[in-house]
Amino acid sequence: MNAQAKDYPFAQEFITDAEGRIRKVVIDIADYQRLIEALEDEGLYRAMAEVRSETPLSLEDALKELERE
Predict the structure, then answer these.
(1) Is the whole-model pTM more than 0.90?
(2) Model confidence over 22-67: pLDDT tens digits?
(3) Using CB atoms within 10 A as the burial measure, which of 8, 61, 62, 67 is most buried?
(4) What is the C-alpha separation between 53 and 38, in angstroms, rounded?
(5) How far apart are alpha carbons 69 and 61 in whole angstroms?
(6) C-alpha–C-alpha distance, residues 16 and 19, integer Å
(7) Distance in angstroms (rounded) separating the CA atoms of residues 21 and 1
(8) Residue 34: its H or E element
(9) DSSP state of 55
(10) CA 8 → CA 3, 26, 39, 44, distances in Å?
(11) Under a CB-based contact definition with an 8 Å cutoff, are residues 52 and 39 in contact?
């Protein structure tokens, strides 16, 4: 794949190899934090979707499960 600068909308700087291929990008910390939050939100959503049909445990049962681990 021959990546172009337009393929990296958050990038502020590019680090390229000797052939000019983009190898790394530098992004603003605020953009990085927003990307991390979006990934975490997606992960939480997927985890919640996986257990949607499960019956919730009572507090007592949940504590017993934690003790077994």
Answers:
(1) no
(2) 889 899 999 999 999 999 999 999 999 999 999 888 999 999 999 9
(3) 8
(4) 24
(5) 13
(6) 8
(7) 10
(8) helix 29-50
(9) P
(10) 9, 10, 17, 25
(11) no
Look at the chain and report how many structural domains it folds into: 1
Give the DSSP H/E element, type plus range, for residue 13: strand 11-16
Domain extent, residue 20, equals 5-68
3-class state of residue 6 by DSSP: helix
14: β partners: 25
Q: For residues 24 and 15, is the Cβ–Cβ distance under 8 A? A: yes
Residue 6: per-residue pLDDT: 78
Res 10: pLDDT = 79
- Distance CA(11)–CA(34), nearest Å, equals 14
Tell me how far apart the terminal alpha carbons of the chain are, to the nearest angstrom. Answer: 44
Tokens of 66: 């934690």
